[in-house]
Structure formats: structure tokens, C-alpha cells
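Cross-posting from the chemistry board since nobody answered there.

I work mostly on the small-molecule side, so proteins are not my area. We synthesized adenosine-5'-triphosphate and want a rough idea of how it might sit in this target. Sequence and SMILES are below. Is it possible to get a predicted 3D structure of the two together?
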Amino acid sequence: MSTPSNQRNADAALAIGVDAWSKAVGARLLMVGAGGIGCELLKDLVMAGFERITIIDLDTIDVSNLNRQFLFQKQHVKKSKAHIAKESALRFNPNVQIESLHNSIFESKFNVEWFRSFDLVMNALDNIPARKHVNMMCRAASRPLIESGTAGYLGQVAVHLKNTQCFDCEPKPTPKTFPVCTIRSTPSTPIHCIVWSKSYLFNLLFGKDEDDNAMAVTADENAKEIEDLKREANELAAIKNNINSANFGELVFTKIFTRDIERLTTMTQMWEDRKPPVPLQFKALTAERKGLSKPAAGVDRNMKVWSLVENFHVFSESVSVLAKRMVSAQQKDAEFSMSFDKDDEDALDFVTAVTNLRAHIYGIETQSRFKVKEMAGNIIPAISTTNAIIAGLMVLQAFKILDQKYDECKNTYLVHGGQRTHLICGENPPAPSRECGTCQAGYFELCVDVTTFTLSDFVNLVLTGRDERGLAVEGEITINEAGRMIYDPDFDDNGALTFKELKIENGGRILVLVDNDDDESKSLSINFFVVHKDGMLSFDMKGDRKIPPRASVKQAVPVEPAAAEKRTAEGDANDGERKKLRVDNEVIVADDDVIVL
Ligand SMILES: Nc1ncnc2c1ncn2[C@@H]1O[C@H](COP(=O)(O)OP(=O)(O)OP(=O)(O)O)[C@@H](O)[C@H]1O
Ligand SMILES: [Zn+2]
């Protein structure tokens, strides 16, 4: 039994209830991400008296983090977030054992066994792939997860328990895309010009060759438009061959801002109801540019909306800097390519200038570099108060989970705006989706000697259940590992290869999809986490997520109806609001244009 070590812990114990508090604080916690929410969360955890915390973050501190990540200060810039967060949090409460890991949570050493060494996992992440990964590992290790996200004034905390929805149960909003013809020929808002410069032009000039069309093509797109787009892309690819030459910028400019626009204006029917674009002239702008210096660095350079000639100037400079960077990097690595990064100053200069030159051509309002960064980076201003509230709500849920008061756990939403009935509303976590490929799947550990165990051995194990507990699935199986398909009924070329030869190592995850046309209930997905045990060939089922022989996973993971059906009056009342509010912390809002790229 823990006892409060200082007044703050004692206050927390009183607020939570001394019994519940002392049961919870000795638990081993894993906190993933030490950014905006993570810093608040760690501070709250140590102040509440939690004694054993592991934090992991792959990043270093950036000056832009300092306005809201209060565990970090100026002197910490460029240092590890995880290590500094630990150092700062220990000053609040030196009695806590904090382990800090400067790593990505994707690393294979953070395997199922490692996840299982924690009692509770708390996500404070900013991207969906990492959230999905932690969710899956928590399912495999049978550990509860508290998920969080904020976007401006909105925020949410979700509790993912054994019998409640997991992160993957609810489909995520699909990114909004724009029709190709709007982006390519008839932009009408600044965001159309930004998408064109960052997702199309930047990729074509500096990205990977196969990335040449990052814009989604919708089914109703006119085939001729697509043909034209391809032709124009090929012409740009040819210009790219001149990346080494002094007039590279001029070649690009003349093609995209003069010739292509001139060609477009000849399509008269396109401009019957719209103002036609007006091409720009390289020579005229070059003459005007003489004697002009680059817009001064600092706030003004970011906030000021540049004139046409200033945009031309920044375009010319940034295109030549990016071209030089490409050429020198490709001398070392022929495959080198860039992708747009809002924090790359040259890339942002380029995208701002191209956006504005294009906007000018189409009579669209031009934007400051700051605004372009916000829109191109899908940035929603982060609000420290929102992060603080969400972190606090996470800690309250942590106490309930660790006190095993599962029925009292709530998914909580921070609501904003005039129509809200409450600032915070909660609901019981919904039941899992029966269709979910993550929580409805089976999870096994496969202890093998990867140097001798072959893919055929594995197929036999899955199909015939060599172990007495037997797996013996019925149906056709497809085997995937790390995004590649390594076996299906028509492809067994890898059969004789050992796991090592297939580069499947300790911590690797193999996904087996069983397809049974005759009996849908026998179609299932099973995850195998490889645990290398020298000289050992055994098949080990761990955790409580077992698939009984010849049964489907759905039967094996019964859902407690109580969790699904119970709703508080408050939860019901706010259900509509909840759906609108689901945020994933990497989506965006920019004026009227809601964009997710
Ligand atoms: N795979 C991962 N493994 C470990 N930490 C991760 C991983 N992916 C993201 N993170 C961390 O999650 C944290 C999320 O914090 P936050 O949303 O405040 O983002 P940020 O990068 O600090 O700020 P911003 O994106 O606004 O500049 C970041 O510190 C980030 O490094
Ligand atoms: Zn699920």
C-alpha cells in the first residue's frame, strides 16, 4: 500500500479516495508521446503520486514547442523530449521512478512482452499510425489503453478496455480531397493553390518519381483532363533533368506560370462562367526584381503578404536552393528525394511563393507565409488549456481503470461553441465493433528458433494445428508480414525459407487472414508475434485472448452487453455532439475550407 509522500499527493489521495488512490499509484504506467498533452500528463501523474512511469518520445525539443510544452525551456531546445520531460517532472516530485526512452514506439524491441510489463498505457500522440500501433500492441498484450487527442478548443479522452471499442473500431474520417480539375485548372480558393504547390509541383520537382501525382483522381474525372495532366507532368519531368543548370528556375517558371496558363486560356468554354487566368512573364518580373532584396527575416517576413515581385523573388531563390540541395544529396545517394515539410524553411518559401504566384494568376487572394504554413501543414493552433484539461481527464480515467471500476470509465469530450450544453460531456465507452480487424482478431505468441523454423512449418502449424491446443483453421490462408504478402494458396515459393531468411525476427508480427467462403464465421484474422527462443520450437498462447480450436475469434471474444448498452442520460443527450467532435489531432481546419491532406 502506498502512502502519500507529500502534501500534493495527499490532496490527490483525498480527492480520489484514499483506497482507490493507494491501489492505483504503484501501477506501472507507459506514456507514449511527451508533446503538448504528454507534458501536461506527466506533470499531473507525478503530482497525483504515481510512482512508476515510463515515457517514450522519438523527438527532440523544438523552439516552437515552448509556448505550450511547459516541461521544456529555451536551454532544452534540440535535446530529447523524453529525457527532459523526466528531468523536469522529477523536480515536481523526486520520489517517482521515471524511465525515459528517446525512441520510436514502433521499434521492434518494444514487443508484446514489453507492453505486458505495464499495467496501463496512455497515449499522448499526434499521428494515427502510431496510435494504431499502440492500440494493436495493447490488444495483443491485453493491456488497457487511454487515448487522447486535441484540436484547438476540442479534445477527447477515450478508454479502450478489453470489452470496449478499440481505437480501430470506429473508422477514421477519410481525408478530404479535391477534384483534379479544380486543383489543376480552375482553382478558386487559396487552399487549391496550396495543394497544387505542395502536393503536385513540389513532388514533381523534388519528390520521388512515383509520387508524381499526389492529388486524388475522382471517379467522375474527365479522362481527357487526366491525359493532359499526365502530359504536363511528363514535360515537367523533362525539365527536372535540367536541375543542375543555372536556368532551372526560369524553365520551371515559364512552363508552369506562362505556357501552361496560356494553353489553358485557349479552352474558351472553361472560362465562360469564370474569370480566365492571366499568365505571368519571367522577363518582365526579372526586370522588376532588380534591386529588390528578399523580404526581411523575422515576424514581418512571415506575417506580411508579399507583393507579386517579392513572390517572384522568393520563388527564384528557393527553387535554386532546393535544386542545389537535391543535386548535392543525389551525388551521395542517387535515390534521394524530398517530401514537403512545413518546417523546412526553403520548402515553405517555395510553396508560399508558388501558391501566391498561382493565386495571382487566378485572381485569388494571396497569403502570408505564416498562413500558408498553417494551411499546408494542416496546423490547428494548439491550445495549452485544452491539453491541460484533457491530460487531467486522462488521469481521472487512469484511477478508475487501476481501481478496476470499469463500469465507471467514461469517454470524455471537451465541447466548444455556443450550442454546447456542457463544457465536458461523457459517455460509457461503446462496445467493440464486430467488424474490427484489430480487437476482434486473435493474438498469439510464436516462440520459435527463427534460424530453423520455415514458412512451411508455420503454414502447417496454422492449418493442421500441430500443437495439442491446435489452431487448425478452416479456409484459405494468406500470410502477411510488415506490409508484404509472403504466402497465399497460389504462392508458396517461400515455403522452404526460414524465418531468418525471410527477415522475420524477434518482435516481428505475422498476420494470417483466414478466408472461408462456406462459413463466414470461420473467416478470421490472427496475429502472431514472433518471440525468438533459441533451440525451442513450441507454440505458445499467452494472455487471455485465446482462440479455442476450430472456433472463430468472434466467439472467443465475447462482448459484455452491459458496456454497450449502458448510457448515461448525459451521454445520450450529447451523442450527436460526440460524433461531430471526434478529433484525431492531425486534422485540420482552415477558415471555411476543411482540409485533410
Ligand atoms: N512513433 C512515435 N514514437 C514515440 N513518440 C512519438 C511517435 N510519434 C509521435 N510521437 C511524439 O508524440 C508527441 C505528440 O505531441 P504534439 O502533438 O504536441 O506534437 P509536437 O510535435 O510536440 O508539436 P507540433 O506537431 O505541434 O509541432 C510528439 O512529441 C512526438 O514526437
Ligand atoms: Zn476494435
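Reply from a structural biologist on the board:
Welcome over. Reading the output above for you: The first strand starts at residue 28 and ends at 32. The domain at 190-363 is CATH 1.10.10.520 (Arc Repressor Mutant, subunit A). Happy to explain the C-alpha cell format if needed.
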